Structures are given as C-alpha cells and as structure tokens.
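Dear all,

This email documents one entry for the complex benchmark we are building for the journal club exercise. For each entry we list the sequence lines for every component of the assembly. Then comes the predicted three-dimensional structure of the complex as a token string, followed by one or two observations. Please use this as the template for your own entries, and keep the labels exactly as they appear.
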Amino acid sequence: MIRTVVATLLMIGAIVGPLHAQTAPVVGLRENTPAVHAFVNARIVVAPGKTIAKGTLVVRSGVIEAVGENVVPPADARVWNMEGLTLYPGFIELSSDLGMPKPQQVAQGGASGATMAQQRQQEAPKGAAHWNSRVQPNVDASLEFKADSRAAEKLRSQGFALALATPQLGIFRGSSALVSLGDGSGSELVVKRHATQTIALEQMQGFGGGYPSSLMGVIALVRQTWYDADWYRKAHESYARKPQGQKRPETNAALEALQPAIQQKQPVVIEVGDDLTFLRAAKIGREFSLNAWIRGSGQEYRRLDAVKAAKLPVIVPVNFPEPPAVDVPEEALNATLEELRHWDTAPENASRLARAGVAIALTTAELRDPATFLASVRKAVERGLSSDAALAALTTNPAHWLGVESRFGTLEKGKVANIMVADGNAFDEKTNIREVWIDGRQYEVKIPPSVDARGTWNVQIRARWSAEKPVSSEEGELIVRGEMEKPSGTLKLKGKDLRLAAVTYANQKLAFMVAGDSINVKGNLRLSATVGKNELTGVGELPDGRSVSWTGARKEPARVEPDTSKPREIKMASFGDLFPAGEFGRAKPPQQPEIMLVKNAAVWTQGPQGKIENADLLVTKGKITAVGKNLTPPKGATVIDATGKHVTPGLIDCHSHTATASVNEGGQTISAETRIEDVLDSDDIWIYRQLAGGTTAANVLHGSANPIGGQNAVVKWRWGALPDEMLIAGAPPGIKFALGENVKQSNFSPGGQQSTRYPQTRMGVEQIIRDRFQAALDYERAWKEWEKDKTLIPPPRDLELDAVLEAVKGKRLVHAHSYRQDEILMLLRVAEEFGFRIATLQHVLEGYKVAEAIKKHGAGASSFSDWWAYKIEAWDAIPGSGSLMHAQGVNVSYNSDNSQLATRMNWEASKALKFGVPEQEALNFVTLNSAIQLGVQDRIGSLEVGKDADFVIWSGDPLSVYSVCEQTWVDGRKYFDLQEDRKMREQIQNERSTLIQKIIASKQTEGAAPGAGPRMMMRRPNEEQLQSCMEGVDHEY
Amino acid sequence: MNTKNLGEKNAMRVDRMLTLILCMVMLTNNASQASEPIPAPKQKHPIALIGATVHTVSGAVIQNGTILFDKGKIVAVGTAVTIPQNTERIDTRGKHIYPGLIDASSSLGLTEIGSVRGTLDLSETGRINPNVRAEVAIHPESELIPVARSGGITVAAVSPAGGLISGTAAAIMMDGWTYEEMTLKAPLALVVNWPSMVYSPGRFMRMSREDWQKQRDEQLKQLRDAFAESRAYLKAKDAEKEKGIHYHDLDMRWEAMRPVFSKKIPVVVNANEISQIQAAVAWGEEEQIRIIIGGGRDAWRVADLLKAKDIPVIVNPIHTAPMRRWEGFDEAYTTPAKLKEAGVRFCISGDYSASNSRNTPHHAATAAAYGLAHDEALKAITLYPAQILGLEAMLGSIEVGKDATLMITDGDPLELSTTVEQIFIQGKKIDMQDKHKQLYEKYKQLEDR
C-alpha cells in the first residue's frame, strides 16, 4: 500500500525524500524523525475560492500527500489536531531584499531616492563587466544570497513561505532567486535561480556624480543597454561564423546575462516609484518586447485605465501613507489635496487594480517594517479587495508568473508543503498567524499558551501577616481576565478587592502585585504562581521581605467574553477620481463642443487677417473653421458672447522646463540619447497655472548642462491627460544644445570634481560639438558599409548618435542655449559647414549683436524679454535685443524658462512695445513666432481656418497689464475658465476640510495608523527646483 | 569712432524705432551724452515742470498742472503756480508726472553680476550681523543703478541679506558720486530673517523632523539671545555714567541695536509663512520694538492680528508661485488686495534682485490686474513705502515741502509699454543714459551698415 503511494507520487514527480535532496555530507548523527504529519480537523483553504470546511491534510517528506474531508491519517503520521484553525498555502513574496547586499542608508526618508548617491560605485568595475557600474544584470541573487533568519522570520510572521530575493543595487540589478523562508544553507533554501531580471527606474539626484544622474538618463541607459544586448548576440554570432578579418567583439558578462530576458525566456521586473513611471516602464517593456512585470508604487489607482491598458502583471506594495499633519491649523495648510486624497485612497489601490482585471501580487516592499504587511493587506481587503483576490495575489498569481505553479501556490496533493496556519480568516483583523510550515517543517509564529490562566480561582495565602502574629492562612478569590497573554484582574483578600498590577503571564508563570494598603500591609505584595489546568502554586513576598506561599484551585474556567466592540465603520474614499489626482484635477477632459462661435470680440488672428474688431471665431470639432465679422452661428452651435473681450491664439512658450520629472542629464558631456518625453510629468500643477495665464503650448527642453543635450518635447497643456497625450502629434523632433558658461561648468565651485569635465572653455565646446557631428556622420557611414555585407558584425546601435545624426541631417530641430555673440556665430558657422540650419537660438542674449548673421543663417531667436546680469555672459543682455533682432528680420520669440513666468507670457510680449515693436508683432513673440520656431505653425500660433482651436479670451487688450485671462481653450476644449476656477477652489476647500476631518476622526477611532508607508507620497523635484532657481544665480537651465 | 560721436549721430537721426530714445535724449542735460551717465549737480535754480498731468498720489490728479521746485524741494504744485524769474521752464505738456518710485526691498548697489562672487556684497558671514551697514558697500558705479532709474526707481531701500540678523538697510538715492551723496537715510531699518517654522522635507531638505526642530529652536534662541544680550550690554554701557560703574569694552554688534530699542528704526522681519508671521509679531511685542513684515505671503491669513497691532507689510514679490499646491494660481497676485480690504498697511516691492528692480511697477500692476485698485497699486510703490519706511516727509507724493523726487512718463507707469523719460531726484535732473540704452544705440548702427 505504502509502496503504491510512493510509486504514485514518484510518477507525478513530486516527492524526493530528505536524504536524497542534498549532497552535503552529514555531520554527526543522522536525524531521522519521520517527516509525516497529518493535520486533522482543520479548515483547509486549498486554493483561492476552494475551501474544505473540515478536513485532513497529510504531509510526507515535505510534500502534500493527501488533502480532503475524508482522508484518513496514515498510520505512521504524527497527528496534529487543528481544531479551530485554518490552513492556507504559504504566501509568496515577489519583491524582497532578503539576504541581498543592501544600499547603505545616508539620509532617512525611506523612499528609494534617498539611497541613490551611495549606489554609485566609484571603483572601476572588475572583470568583463559593463562600463557603467550601475548596469549589473550579471549579478546573481542565488550566489549573493546570505541566509538571514531574522528577516525570514519576519516574513513568516506575515504568512510567507517563499520570497523572491532581488538584488538591490544599481539600475540593472541582476537576476533574482526564489528562496524558501525556512532554515538551512543557501543551497537548501534557493528554490529557483535566475527567476527574474530586475531593473529599477530611479529618479537620480542633481548634477555631478556618475551617469546617469537623472530619470531620463536612467531610461536612456536602460534602452541603450537592451539595444547593446541585442547587438552583443548578433556580433558574437557573426564573429563565430567568421572570425577571420573581423575585430573580436567585446566579452561582456552584463550583456550576456541579458540574453534570456531579451529573448523573453526570463521575466523582467521593473521597479518604479510612482504611477507615471509605471507607464514609462511599460513603454520600455513594449519597445523591447520584454516579458515585463512592474513592481509598482502603490499609486497605480491614479492612472488605472492606463495601467490596465499596459496589460502587465503588477507587484503591488501596500505602503499606505501616514496622514499628513493636520492637527494644528497652520500646519494643515501645507497638506496638499493630492496628499490628502492619496491618504484617503491608497488602501483601495490593490482592490481597484484587481477589479479592473489587472493581475496583481502583493508585496512587503516599500514598507518601513514588513511586520505591518498583513495589517495593511487586511485594510486593503476591508476597502474592497476580495479575500480570494488577496489570497491569489499572495499565492497562485506569484506561483504562476514564476512558472512554479506545479509546486507552489496551493495546498493540493503533490505540492510542496508550504502551509500557513491561522486561527481564523487570514484577512480578518483579529486573526493570528500561528505557524508556517515550509517544506513540511514547522516554524512557529505565535503559539498561544497551552494553559489559559483566565478564570476565577479560590486561593489560600499563607504568611506571617505581621511581625507579631504567627503564620496564618488567608482565603481569597483571584479573578484573571482580559487577553490570554496580557491578563488583568483582581485579588479579593480580607474582604477587599485589590487590583492586580504589573501582571505578566508567560510559560505558565503568572506574576502580579497588589497594593496592600487596604489590608493593612504597607507597600506592595508580590505574588507569582505556576498555573496548571485546575490548580496553581506559587510564592510571594510581603513588602518587608517576609515570604509567602500560596495555592489556588480553579473555581470557574475562563469565560469567553463576547465581543461587544462595534464593528468598525468602513469608510471608502470620499471623493471620485480626478486627473491629476489632486487640486484642480478634472474628472474627465473638458468637453469639446461640436460647433462653437465666439462672438463679437477683438480677435487678434496673428495671421493675414490681422486684428479684427467686433469679430467672431467659429470652431468645429476643435478646429477653426471661420474667422471674421458677423458670422452666423450654425444650428446647435455653442455661442460665447465675448463682447468687449479680446481673443488671441493660445500663448506658446518656446523654452520651458515645466512638467518634467528631470531636467538635466549632467552625468555626461553629451546627452543626446535622453528624451524629455520619457519624463513628462502630467501632474505638474504648473500646467494648470500656465493655462490660467493663457499659455497653451510649450517647448519642453532638456537643461543646459551639455553642449549637445537631450531631446525636447513639444506639448500642449492638456491638463489631466497622460504625458504622451500632451505631445503635439507631428511636431518635428528637436534637441537641446548649450554653449558657454553652463556647459563649461564655469559656475561650479573651482577645484571640485566637476571642473575637469571636457570642455572647460568655449574653444572646447566648439571642438566637441564638431567632433560629435563628425562622429554621427562616421556612424552613418559604418551602417552603410554594413548594409553591403550583413553577415559582418553590425555597428552597435547608438541612441546618442542617432539623435545627433538626425540633427546634422536637418531632421531634428536644434534649440541652442547661447549667450555671447562669439558662441552664437561659432555654432551657426559649424552648422553651416555641416550643411544644416540651427532652428532656434535660445536665450540668445547677445543676439542683437549678430542679428544679421542669425537672419542670414535662418535661425529663430527665442529670448528672455529682459533678464540680465545674473552671470558674466548675461552682462550685455539688453531688453531691446528682441526688437533689434526683429528689425533685422529675425524671427523672434520670448520665452519663460521659468514656470511662474510662463503664466504671464502676454506681459512679456508687451515689453517689446517699449522698443517700437507694433502690437501684433509683439504678440507674435509669444504666439506665431514660437510656433514657427517649433515647426508647428500649420497647427497653432494663429487663428486661421484649419488650425487648432487653441485660443484665449482676455478681459481686455492682452498687452495691457490690467487684462487677465478669462478662458483658455485647447483643441476646442475649455481648459481654464476664471469662473470655474473659483468654483474649483471652493471644491478644493471642501474636499480638504472633509479629508482633514476624516483624518482626525480616524486617529480618534483607530489610534495610530499602521503607518507603514512614507510620509510623502512622492517627490516633485522639479517644482522645488524651479522655485529655487528663480531666486538663485542659476535661474536658467 | 568713439561713443560720443555715436551718440551725436543718433540724436540727429529720425527713426521710428528711436523715437523713445530721442525723447530721452532731448530731455537730458547734455543731448550728446551717450557715454557713461554722469551724476547730476545739485539743483542750482528753480525748475518748473509745466503742463503735465500731475499725479500727486496723495491728492487729486491735476490736469495741465505745474510743479515748481527749488533747492531740491517742491515749492508749489497746481494749475496756477507763480513761476519766479530765474526758473528753468520745462514743457511737459502731454506727459505725466508721478512721484519717483521706491523699491522697498532691494539689493541695488550691493551686487553686480550674480555669478561673480567678487561683485557680491549682500550677505556677511555668520548669523548675527546687526552692525553691518548697507550704505557703506553701495557701489556708485554699478551699471544696474542707471537701468533701475530708467524704470522710474528713484530711491531703493537697500537691504543686506542672510543669517538671522542681516544688518541695517539704507534708503539710497539712485544718483550721486559717492555712497554718502546717495544715502538718503541710514540706518533705515534692521533686517531680520525669521527661521522657517514649517517642517517640509523634500529634495533640498532631508533632515528628520527632530533634527529640523532642533535647528529651528537653536536659531530662535540665537535671535532672542542677540536681543537679550544687546539689551544687557546697552544697560551696562548706559550705567557707565554712574559712579562706581566701570567701562565696558565696545561690542559693535550690540551698539548697533540702540536705534532699534529706542524705536528710532523699525525691524523688517522677513516672514512669509503664517507661523513665521505669527511668531514674528509675538516676538516684536515681547521685545517692544517696531516691526514690519517683509515678504508676507500669508499675511492676509493673519490680517486681523496685523491690523490690530498696526504692523505694515512689504509684500514681495508679487510674481511668485503659490506656496501651496492647492492655492489659486493668483495667490501671490492677490495678497495686496486682500490686505487692503482688511485694512492692513502694505506696500509692494519686487523680487529683491538688483537687475530686476526696474520691474517693480510690473509687480504692482499685476496686483492691480488681480483686484487691487489702480491708485492703490500706484501708492504701493510710492506713498506707502515712504510711509512704512519713515520717509514720508521727503518722498512718496507730490506735495509742497517734499523732495523733488519725481518722474516724467509718457503714460501710466504701471503699463509695460510706458517709458520713463526723465527723473528728478531732490531736484537734480538725472542723466537717463544707461548701459542698455548705450548698447541699443551702438548696435542700432549695424542696421544701416
């Protein structure tokens, strides 16, 4: 019979006896305690949605041999009575740092950003490594893993039996290992090697340090590395075919380690810090057809539709934020609605994902203390995550994703005996996890005392109650109540009720003291006793040191006190979703009227029609269909009476850094591979504020840290849309260049590590730009050579040179930050030599000195209206520069380079009036001319038939300081309205105060929240950066 | 070709683009003066500005008015002014005359080029510097001063920066050969920067709440100690007169605090956030000193307090971000209007930067666009700063007896298209040339090359 069982099990390949499972020699005596266990009378949750109310589960040699209602425990089994207990499949953690080398903590904060600086390993890489020390896909967690029994115990306490140990350092972090959370050596614990590859998309900090120093640099490096991995295979294949005559391709352990992942044989987990970075990660996954999973941030609900559309498995943290400080009214002012809403909604994140059909797993990652995990999951369940979904997210989903579902994830016959034992429903607040069995071995979590001391006891206490009297016995009554392990109670003695103080109960030893004053014993009487089922015996001491002996007999057993506490009222998120999820967000995009007519305004067309008084503007489906006097509104048209108002095209800011998660990639001299579109931050509140000032579109540029910088993004401020939806379709691609002080780092502190980067002079700037142009042409030539014989090693795809080549070929607009006339001329001449045109000179503060050359070259000039004197190269900046260049026929625009300034671009334009620029031409400086400079004049910049209905209604002459923006329309949708803005403020006020009251109430009822998550929901470096740069020397990028 | 010739050539040409420059040049003492502006000589004879629209600011607007001034002071204002014999008559028909603008919080003269350390004299090292005096570091040759003048700035409250007690500010006239000639009043006020009272961790602030609190408390103690110690010092010094009390060595820092304690000068406490303002007000009461709130972004939230204590606010800058994400886009724009409505005394200044001092009226104009009455916006950069800074006997309005510190414009000075054609400072007719105009004129030549 037994033989049959064994044979059967062998057939399904699920049994290997302990003796056969390892190669290590036995030290000392063999241990052969039979590993056969039968759990009887248990409630068994076999799998999500599949429960046996009362049954038996048999484990043999670490494997589930049988499970069912009518299973008879085998004769050789040790029987465990599991009456009242529930067995669950052991949980699987998919994002753990267990046993991994950890980044050193420099600053506190917990957010991943805090740990970055020290991750830049300064030493030269060892071995055949990647050139960038933060690209370490070759790190192998199964080799790095160091058993950490304390950390494992903590995870077991939350129900976990397995964890995916994931390397923690760098961007490409290496492959993870699935490890068992039991005790043993590394080779015993590691269940699966190379389970996943790991990437972390981290926001890097500031200038200096290594490359990449920005999120966009990180993304560029990740993309480049995948291209490199692809090339690496092809190169080696080619070389293997034909080594003769070919240069030997490099040996690179990192690129080699990426081969399984790029061929979809290994999943790639991408760790992200916020909801928008989730979408960035998903985009990378798509670009390289990766089997990508996202380790999320807990903010996925904010962009649920987009997350759902990504169709990727998501490992979800339960890092619910602590509430913002709101007790003191002044302090509460600083709580943003975004934070408050996040506090209110975060616990519903997992539930909303699950309901949307997103495949999720739950993780302890991002929790300050993993021991708070289950409490948070229970909160998530309370807030709508079904118990089955929660269980699946902890068992079957991870097992499936990892491809280990034949062994793990359920309590079915043949599976590994990873079992969690709880005294109730795992997701119920009051349930305790008792023990976790891993590979059929028991690990206690919290076993309650075998004897319950609670109840009523008749006691006899023998003592010399006073110096005068002999030993005598007092009868009394001891009542022990409260929690089993934290009891309280009273001792009735000499007719008095004495309250027990300092009560402890552990290992069957009950100890307490009582104040003796009421029974004429001055001081505290201390008693302790060993508690048996029905009797107790112990000793004690009177205050004066005389000893006491006492016994007790149980009078009444512990009474189970009925739970009288009211079930806690579950409060779901108070408010519906907004996009972005905070102040001034919208529930949905503004509607686009089919047909609309703006009537009777002074219309500044900025086109051939000029400025028309008492004119109308007809818009159909977001496009301008007529401009002129006395237009008849078509049937059903929405009519806006703009009598006395002025209407202009939406203002266009030709130099912006608004809505970016990072601005500069200063880690390399040339950063052409980086793309602003990768880091657009559609949640930036400045988008809304700029709409409120009539700005509808912007040229969002990389900073000026590099002679050839990153690729720009031309966007419309479609507030509430996703980053990619803000891009203006069909806008020519562009790239930032920079010259002068910033790129030669002249304002960095002298002697610092930054003062040696090439170039340090304007001479060097010219040379490096020239060199890169030529490098791009050489790169092009190399590709053409390869085209002739594709069996040869191809040139490596180079994202940096791709972009530079496009610029040199005139297919990518160059926007060049420039100040002095010499550098302006230099760049024009170098470009002319290479046969292309610089699209715009940005800042171009001395442009007025070489206006003729700029005109001849055909570059646009995009300038500040009047900034000057903040550095040497701005010393000759004059406010008349724009007008002088304009007079020479140069296309001139005024830009902001500053989020606040971008809210009042009409006034910037009006500064040109002082220098004789006629009013319509002045307004062109922030409308049509900007559009021309960006190559989008066929769509925006003027109010002409066929163009986009991006326009502003002003209270008066837009060039007067007394006029304000009343309405801002983009694509025929009203994105800003002064009246509506007032209403939104009331709504914000209402929401804030509601949520503040909710926080206060929750603190009163729940006490301190589990407080697992970070205080701040996210970092907004750019908002801070831009504010601070307004005041400092380096106000421009 | 020297620049002087260039200037002459300019003055001869009639050109659409140059109209405004010509206006300026014609009004200037020496029409051929296109080089370095020369400080003006003292007013030697009476001057009458005749025919302009006179915006007295303190009183009614006078159409076709005349202003007569002599020895630097306004002698008469009105439509029927008797003009003495030796008076220089200047035809200002079609023009507007206003009191000269005051930049109530400025770094003019203490800084030249932001990135060049050698040109920066803004911020002394250490936290307690009551003794440093702005006026002694004013660089009369600063190229930024004539540019500010061209924007109508006639007097700037030049203030040191940094630390907890930055030093004393001085009222600096925008013309003169030396800092002494330029100084209108010094000390004008002591400048204190209130420590941050709100814990806001972020990119640039990584401290724990506890560490931050410790640092804040330490700074508050340092500030209180400075005042307590200077009181003790001054008490001891004053006691020297008495018999048996011996001499105490000089302490420059505490000596400088005398006018603060005697209330001869106010203390400008830079405080934006509500808790800072509340703390500053309480501290001012406790120390029994006169305070002015500088910055004051949250001042309207405690308007009742400020009104009750009659504490004025220098609101600056107007062009700045809302402090909090949930606040309206126009939060900073509307602060002056809210203070006005609540009856709190206020004035408006720019962003403290020297190069942008000329944009002070732009800040006031934005407040006007967002709810402040136009005449109030004008007062906020003329009469109100004069009153708040204790200069109202000399400045702020066109009234008999005040300094003849005026500006002539071609329109509303709050409009960005308006040109300030001429200013007078204490009756001195100021050379309106500046670096920007020089470069403009110079490179204008290229058009015809």
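Observations: Chain A touches chain B through 80 residues (CB under 8 Å). The CA atoms of residues 430 and 563 of chain A lie 11 Å apart.
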